[in-house]
Amino acid sequence: MRYYWDEQSQETLQLIARKWSRPEDFRIFSINMVRKIVDKRASTYRLKPRRNFVGMDQATGDAIYRSLNADGLLKKASRYTKLLKTTVLQVGWNEATGKPTLNVLTPNVLDVQHTGDPEMLTRLIVTHDAGKAEDRWYSDWTATTFNRRNYRGARIRTDGNQGGQNPYGIIPFVPLFDRLPDDQFFLPGGDDLIEAQTALNVALVNLWRSVETQAHGQPWATGISANEVLQLGPNRVITLPNGGEFGFASPNAPISDILAAIEFLMRQTAATHDCGADVFDLSTLAESGSAKHAERIELKEARLDDLELWRLAEQRLFEVVKVVVNTHAPGTIPPGASLSVDFAELQDQLTEAEALDNTRTKIELGLWSPVDALLALNPDGFADRNAAHAELSRRRDESAALALPL
After folding, report:
1. pLDDT at 176
2. From which domain of life does this come (predicted)?
3. Which residues of 135-157 are buried (b: 16+ CB within 10 A; e: fewer)?
4. Strand-strand pairing, 121-128 and 110-114
5. How many domains are contained in the chain?
6. What pLDDT does residue 286 have?
7. Is residue 402 assigned to a domain?
8. Is 12 exposed, middle or buried (0-12, 13-18, 19+ CB in 10 A)?
């Protein structure tokens, strides 16, 4: 997570300190390749999915998911899962607002037990860190119990729940995996990306060190004593003995070689993670939508695998939300209600003329109505299709009125 959030300097400084006695003389900076690749790979929620609630009122379901901030938090969860390989969603309840809550938990605060199937949890413990070790506490969940424990593991008595009961009857967490797990809850992987980022950071430090130390020529002189110091400057005359010489040695820093190595590292790392070798190539000229589509085939294939995992995760999340909400607000979600998710397709980078031509063709073929075209143009501007239809009607009436002769 430190690498994802631009907190890489300390690791780079420690590597430099192993070989140099004065690591503070080095200028440390980085290009965040980790976040770029992770965000590129985690494309499931790049566009908002369409959730259809079956067996319950659609408006009620939409309101519940808006109160969860589901779209934003699931996008965050997809990125964290792509980086860490395993994360967990926690569904809770805010007594002050009377609404459900959703949080993303990372492996560093989790301890779990399961039946042998990592998706079937029997116990989950969440660490709530604090500035002092003695202030740290833990949430200990099973399907029937909930206890708060102190840093020694002793149970903390909780007002209103003296018996340590879990009111939900389930563990209100949903595990998320970057791939189908075998028998491990915390999936391995991702070390290659972190190692590549570390190598990139060191290469950037070496590059800038070469620039700083060899950006200017080195003066030299012959025919003078070793301890004699010449006073240099454009307003000074240098006096040398007979046979003495003076000049500047040109620097020979391997800047181009270092840059080539850095570019090779970044391009190959991107290609290994299905992002395309040119994702870090700033010299690439603008390309047509067809060319962009061809380059993104591998990324799209990887996304198809992710969609199946996240479609299942969405269904499990809804079942947990149903239990939590009905526990605190009985009858809000019918017991037989279910959820289906339509994930948005990634759109190719087309020119405005190409996009308009595609829209016109879809309308002519009956695949879209003008309402679909308006929603595609401004997906966040309307609460539902009825609102988009009303706006489209208003615009047509306005156009017709303006077309009338004065």
Report:
1. 96
2. Bacteria
3. eebbebbbeeebbbeeeeeeeee
4. antiparallel
5. 2
6. 45
7. yes
8. buried
CB-hemisphere CA count at 13 Å for 152?
3
Report CA dihedral (308, 301, 176, 269) to the nearest 10 degrees. Answer: 180
Q: Are 8 and 172 in contact (CB under 8 A)?
A: no
Question: End of a domain among 203, 232, 250?
Answer: 250
Query: What's the token pair of residue 383?
Result: 């609460």
pLDDT tens sequence across 232-246: 777 777 777 787 787
Of 343, 338, 337, 333, nearest to 315 (Cα)? 338
**CA 69 to mean position of chain CA atoms:** 16
* CA–CA gap between residue 330 and residue 324 (Å, rounded): 9
pLDDT for 157: 86
Say if 127 falls within a structural domain.
no
Residue with tokens 């303006």: 402
Instruction: Taking residues 219-223, report their average pLDDT.
Output: 78
| Percent of all residues in the chain with a pLDDT value above 90, rounded to a whole number | 44
**Which pLDDT does position 295 carry in this prediction?**
55
Q: Which residue has the tokens 């909400």?
A: 325
Q: Give the phi and the psi of residue 214 in degrees, each rounded to 5.
A: -125, 25
Establish if 371 belongs to a structural domain. Answer: yes
The parent domain of residue 223 ranges over 217-250
Number of CB atoms found within 10 A of residue 247's CB: 11
Q: Is the pLDDT of residue 110 over 60?
A: yes
From CA 243, how far away is CA 245, in angstroms rounded?
7
Q: Considering the domain boundaries, does residue 355 fall inside one?
A: yes
Contact 93/101 with Cβ under 8 angstroms? yes
pLDDT of residue 319: 97
The pLDDT tens digits for 112-151 are: 999 889 999 999 999 999 888 889 999 999 999 999 999 9
Of 250, 273, 306, the domain-final residue: 250
